[in-house]
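pasting for ref
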Amino acid sequence: MSKLEHIKNYERIILGIDPGTIVMGYGLIGIQKKQVEIISLGIIKLDKLDEHSLRLKRIFERTTALIDQYKPDELAIEAPFFGKNVQSMLKLGRAQGVAMAAALNRELVINEYSPKKIKQSITGNGNATKEQVAAMLQRLLKFEEAPAFLDATDGLAAAYCHYLQNNRATTEGKTYSSWKSFISDNPDKIKKK
């Protein structure tokens, strides 16, 4: 079965994006019977484009291409965070807006999450580092090699956060309100190194 034929078998596909004007990260997950699999993750490098407007155009084009290739049902995107550099925040907001416009152009449902909410959902700690988020995703989604850029796992984290927000972890009908309680009841589900 080809990769594209396999994609048709998912009940739902979520595209996650970590917007950026130098590097944009993305991750796609497929859900089938409450099982989550990574379909793809990667980055779009924009540093070789000198003009901000050209970077925005590339974000629109590549986001549209990802949507056309993988046919996701929803977009989960990380919201810009408030920082000290207003110009950086404005550029990041434009990058997010362009990615959202590409999704809207393909009639996708858009879900926005703060960086803190994504980190909290994945690790149980809203102040977790990018490395901690990547390590937890490796355990949860069972992939070996971390990508060279953590922006890719940040995009994947947005998609997985959206999945978690809509499908609280359950085992034998029990619902968990935190990762700590889930792990406590299900130590066999966590891969130890």
